[in-house]
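Thread: "does anyone have the structure for this chain?"

Original post by V.I.:
We have the sequence but no experimental structure in hand. Need at least a predicted one for the grant figures.
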Amino acid sequence: MTTRTRRPGELVFNGLLVIISLFLVYQSSLISGFTSWSSPGFFPVLASLIMLLSSVFSFVRGCRMSSPTLPVLSFWRRVLPRQVMIMMLAVVIFAFALSEIGFLPASFIFLLVTIRLFYSKNWLKTLFITIVSLAIIYLIFRGIFQVILPESEWLTQLTGIGV
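Reply from O.Q.:
Generated one for you, tokens below.
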């Protein structure tokens, strides 16, 4: 049987899962506890207990493995590659832009930039995919589900139309 070494960050991740699982067990027990099989809190408590047991098992198994031989820099390259970091930053900017410029302009810019960066180097193709995607998203959420999407007050006052 071959022994596997821990991957960089694996033990920290498993430890965080144990802590989160403990918190979820506590939170789910506040619903109604484990009073009966049909109580509203039974399945959340059961699910969080299963998560806790499996995360403790993974943590203990990780403690028994030998330490990774790769440097810390390798951890960041494996866990958060450049593309993931860029996308996380884009999502944070998009979240702030929603309240400032509204759903349609913020989504248009977000889709245009991310599709251009990660998929297509052709501007015409990128623009086409962005417009079609945004139209479909808008029709589904605004038209079918009737979700009220964020609008920008200052942009609406400037243009006279809600965007």
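V.I.: this helps a lot. The CA atoms of residues 75 and 81 lie 9 Å apart.
O.Q.: and DSSP finds seven helices and no strands in the chain.
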